[in-house]
Amino acid sequence: MRLAIIRHAPPLHGGRLAGRRDVDADCTDAPAFAAMKRLLARRMPDAQAVASPALRCVRTASALNLPHRTDPALWEQDYGAWEGMLFADLPDIGQLAPPDLARHRPEGGESFDDMCARVQPALMAFDTDTVVVAHAGTVRAALALVAGPAALSFQVAPLSLTILGRHGRDWSVETANLIPAT
Asked: Other C-beta atoms within 10 Å of 177: how many?
C-alpha cells in the first residue's frame, strides 16, 4: 500500500498562522497543477482520494480533479491561542530538541504529538493506495511514522508530494516534498 500526501496549494492566510482557520488556497498556477496531475497519473494511477475538510484542501483536490471524500482527522494542528497571529508576532519558544518540540502545546491548542495521535490512525487505516490532500502538519505526522519527532524538521512546500509505502506494519519514505517540474 502506498500513501501519497499532497500539501494544499498556497494558503491565502494574509501573513497569519492558519492552522484550524478555514482559509482558501490559491489554485491559479495551472502549470503546477498540470504537473501534479501528470505525476499522480504516473505514480498513483488507481488510488482513492481523501482530503482534509479545510477549504484550502478541498479546493486543491478539486483543482487536481480528484474525486474525494473528506476526513476531519486530517485537519491541520490546532494552534490554540496562536491561531490567526501574524507570523512575525508568534512567540519564540527557543531551541527545543525534536521530542520536546513535539510535546509543546500552545495554550488551548494541541501538540504535534496530539496531532499525530489523531492523524496517524486515519492514515494507518487505509488499505489501498491513497492520495491525501491535507496540510504540512499532516505530512509531517505521516513522516513521523518513519522518523518520529524528527519529522518536524522536514520542509513541506505548498503543492508538494510526499509518498510513503507500507509493507506489513513497516513504513518507508519513497519521496518527500517533491515539487513536480512544470
From this structure: 15
Cell of 104: 509543546
Reported as a single tens digit per residue, the pLDDT across 2-13 is 999 999 999 999
User: What is the Cα–Cα distance from 120 to 15, expressed in whole angstroms?
Assistant: 29
Residue 111, strand partner residues: none
The sheet carrying 69-70 orders its strands as: 69-70, 48-51, 130-134, 2-7, 161-167, 170-178
Give the bridge partners for 48, in sequence order.
Answer: 130
Cα–Cα distances in Å, from 113 out to 6, 120, 125, 138? 21, 10, 18, 12
Domains and CATH numbers, the chain: 2-87+95-178 (3.40.50.1240)
**Which long-range contacts link 92-95 to residues 24+ away (Cβ below 8 Å)?**
none
For the stretch 116-164, pLDDT in tens is 999 999 999 999 999 999 999 999 999 999 999 999 999 999 999 999 9
